[in-house]
């Protein structure tokens, strides 16, 4: 059940992100990027799965006796944490850039920004 | 078999990263004092070159060198902790970056582009180098992602650096594309973790080579490898992922463009070679796929034939599109940016041959060819982009229409650019001759007719655009812009040094070939890679083939 819900959530997030990414408004494009990177994070977490841990798979818990609780894969948690930080940083940078684009071009409409080449 | 002791070699592995990190922080702290900042940066660059040279000698090239050394960060053992690995392939790539990096750094001390953001130039430069170095040294798939991001963050700022409206726009598209690529990278990484239960490259190679022992199904890995390849192809700028290159290369300062073409592109190539040959080559996936339209059959017992087929298609398109695009450009950096797309195709062709062939000898030879060509590309294209910087600083323009007669104005500059152009074309005795010769030789040994025709066409296009660029900017009557030009002597010296390096690599090719051979062997030798990184896993597998982790 959880797997289906997670899959649906990831799919919906990617769909929404892609939809926003294809908009003409630069701010929506940034939103799309932010949502896609969050979708990738949720996907990453889902890939680790939730399972009864062992002291082998969670070395940090090795000193806590025999009973180790059910947990989301700690490795994946660490990865997602890193990915979230990077993703937020980059989204902030993209927002700043879009503001700068607005200042310089007086528009946030992609089609008015002109040809990418020239 | 016991874990290798933590010794000098092990610490050497992290030396270049530490050096460049210290240089970055140091130059950041000295932001307000331009002279001290430049001095610290230069010292950092020199120390970086020394650290890389030490890795080259003590780990790879010395007679009793181990060939590979690892550093387990925080002393966590391999499958859990972060592993840094230096072997022949990493060392070869690092050497290219070190040579070009130091040249670009010296070049940068003379003329810093940009306005108020100037004090951040050197720290960013070092962070870019840090990302590249980390990507070459990491032994962990997720860490590769992190180092890619470090490298990209610095490059984002550089693309927006010059501050004009068109630079901001170029940077926005560059950032958007790479954020999307990062999400795809995460998808690949997550999928591989779910399939195999590990992200450590050595552990991954180990498990894929013996899937039954670990109870995993290697088939999905082919598709996931495809996802990762598309991300690396974006970094390498292979068609159809090349569209960001002309705009981004034009927007970034020339000395950074030299690094983008010479170093970050190589990170993409390195990742393709490392993952395809060291990590995924051992996966046993029976492949038998016939493509009805072309009458080609892709067959083999590992994911490599897929990689080869995909690379071959991308390389073909890159060579043609890059070459034809370069012929029509009207500015120097436009020509070189498109040429850069074409040249990466020349690197990808031998990699594709290596992936599709069944013969181990030919596979090794083809990778040597790719590496030598990559070295030539780094030196020649690095020199040419730096020359763009010199020309722009001297004349204020790089449009071919506004240039002319540069050869008489500054003969050393002209000679350096001439040497680099000839190296691109592949004239003996320059480094480019051996690069191109080996690539042709690999195609001939593979008895791959279409590849040879393609390489010939690509070479002719190279001659066409190199001649055109040369004729229009260096010969002919002097234009007003060239008449008043003052060429910076230090910048020209850097160019001459690089040109000398191109000649030196060509004349003294034997040691370079040996180094490339060592690198290619390291790329193909999964066993010693696994053994060095994760001796425990190797033991498990030898002892009881059902070893649980």
TrEMBL record, chain A:
Q: Does the keyword Transmembrane helix apply?
A: yes
Keywords on this record?
Cell membrane, Membrane, Transmembrane, Transmembrane helix
State if Repeat is listed as a keyword.
no
Q: Name one GO cellular component term.
A: plasma membrane
The record describes its membrane topology as: Multi-pass membrane protein
Any transmembrane segments, and where?
A: 6-22, 29-55, 75-97
At the top level, the lineage of the source is Archaea
| One matching Pfam family | Oxidored_q2
Q: From the Swiss-Prot or TrEMBL record, give the protein name.
A: Cation:proton antiporter
* Organism for this UniProt entry: Natrinema versiforme
TrEMBL record, chain B:
Instruction: For this UniProt record, give its keywords in alphabetical order, as a comma-separated list.
Output: Cell membrane, Membrane, Transmembrane, Transmembrane helix
Q: Does the keyword Transmembrane helix apply?
A: yes
* Gene Ontology MF terms: NADH dehydrogenase (ubiquinone) activity
> Which is a Gene Ontology cellular component entry for this protein?
plasma membrane
**Intracellular or extracellular location(s):** Cell membrane
What InterPro entries does the entry give? CPA3_Na-H_Antiporter_D, NADH_UbQ_OxRdtase, ND/Mrp_TM
Pinpoint the NADH:quinone oxidoreductase/Mrp antiporter transmembrane domain residues: 139-462
Keyword set includes Ribosomal protein: no
Transmembrane region(s):
12-31, 38-60, 80-107, 119-138, 144-164, 171-194, 221-246, 267-286, 306-328, 335-353, 365-391, 412-431, 451-470, 490-509
Q: What protein am I looking at?
A: Na+/H+ antiporter subunit D
């Amino acid at each position: 059940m959880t797997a289906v819900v997670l899959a649906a959530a990831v799919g919906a997030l990617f769909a929404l992100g892609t939809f926003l990414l294809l908009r003409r408004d630069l701010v929506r494009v940034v939103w799309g990027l932010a949502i896609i990177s969050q979708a990738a994070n949720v996907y990453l977490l889902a890939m680790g799965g939730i399972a009864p841990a062992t002291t082998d798979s969670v070395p940090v818990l090795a000193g806590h006796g025999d009973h180790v609780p059910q947990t989301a894969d700690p490795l994946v948690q660490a990865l997602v944490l890193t990915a979230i930080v990077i993703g937020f940083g980059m989204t902030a940078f993209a927002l700043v850039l879009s503001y700068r684009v607005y200042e310089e071009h007086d528009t946030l409409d992609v089609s008015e920004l002109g040809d990418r080449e020239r | 078999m016991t874990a290798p002791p933590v010794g000098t070699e092990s610490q050497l592995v992290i030396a270049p990263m530490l050096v460049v990190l210290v240089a970055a922080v140091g130059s950041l702290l000295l932001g307000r004092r331009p002279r001290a900042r430049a001095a610290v940066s230069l010292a950092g660059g020199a120390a970086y070159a020394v650290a890389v040279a030490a890795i080259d000698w003590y780990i790879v090239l010395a007679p009793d060198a181990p060939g590979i050394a690892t550093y387990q960060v925080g002393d966590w053992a391999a499958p859990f902790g972060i592993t840094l690995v230096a072997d022949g392939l990493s060392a070869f790539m690092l050497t290219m970056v070190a040579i070009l990096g130091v040249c670009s750094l010296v070049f940068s001390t003379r003329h810093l582009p940009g306005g108020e953001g100037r004090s951040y130039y050197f720290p960013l430069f070092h962070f870019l180098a840090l990302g590249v170095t980390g990507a070459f040294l990491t032994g962990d798939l997720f860490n590769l992602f992190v180092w890619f991001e470090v490298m990209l963050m610095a490059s984002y700022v550089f693309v927006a650096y010059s501050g004009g409206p068109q630079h901001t726009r170029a940077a926005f598209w560059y950032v958007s594309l790479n954020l999307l690529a990062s999400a795809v990278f995460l998808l690949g990484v997550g999928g591989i973790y779910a399939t195999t239960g590990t992200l450590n490259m050595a552990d991954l190679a180990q498990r894929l080579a013996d899937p039954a022992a670990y109870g995993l199904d290697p088939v999905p890995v082919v598709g996931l490898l495809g996802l990762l390849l598309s991300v690396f192809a974006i970094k390498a700028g292979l068609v159809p992922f090349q569209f960001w290159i002309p705009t981004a290369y034009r927007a970034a300062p020339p000395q950074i463009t030299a690094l983008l073409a010479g170093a970050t592109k190589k990170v993409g190539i390195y990742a393709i070679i490392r993952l395809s040959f060291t990590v995924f080559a051992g996966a046993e996936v029976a492949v038998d796929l016939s493509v009805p339209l072309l009458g080609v059959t892709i067959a083999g017992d590992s994911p490599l034939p897929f990689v080869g087929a995909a690379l071959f298609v991308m390389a073909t398109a890159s060579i043609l599109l890059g070459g034809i695009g370069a012929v029509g450009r009207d500015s120097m950096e436009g020509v070189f940016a498109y040429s850069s797309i074409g040249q990466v195709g020349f690197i990808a062709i031998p990699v594709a041959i290596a992936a599709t062939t069944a013969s181990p000898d030919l596979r090794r030879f083809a990778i040597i060819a790719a590496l030598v060509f990559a070295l030539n590309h780094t030196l020649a294209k690095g020199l040419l982009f730096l020359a763009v910087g010199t020309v722009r600083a001297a004349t204020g323009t790089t449009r071919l229409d506004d240039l002319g007669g540069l050869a008489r104005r500054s003969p050393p500059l002209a000679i350096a650019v001439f040497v680099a152009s000839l190296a691109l074309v592949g004239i003996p005795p320059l480094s480019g001759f051996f690069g191109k010769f080996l690539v042709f030789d690999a195609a001939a040994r593979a008895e791959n007719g279409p590849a040879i025709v393609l390489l010939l066409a690509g070479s002719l296009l190279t001659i066409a655009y190199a001649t055109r660029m040369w004729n229009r900017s260096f010969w002919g009557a002097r234009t007003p812009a060239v008449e008043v030009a003052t060429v910076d002597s230090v910048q020209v010296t850097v160019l001459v040094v690089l040109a000398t390096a191109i000649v030196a690599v060509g004349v003294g090719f034997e040691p370079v070939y040996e180094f490339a051979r060592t690198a290619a062997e390291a790329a193909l030798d999964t066993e010693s890679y696994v053994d060095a990184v994760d001796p425990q896993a190797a033991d498990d597998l030898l002892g009881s083939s059902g070893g649980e982790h």
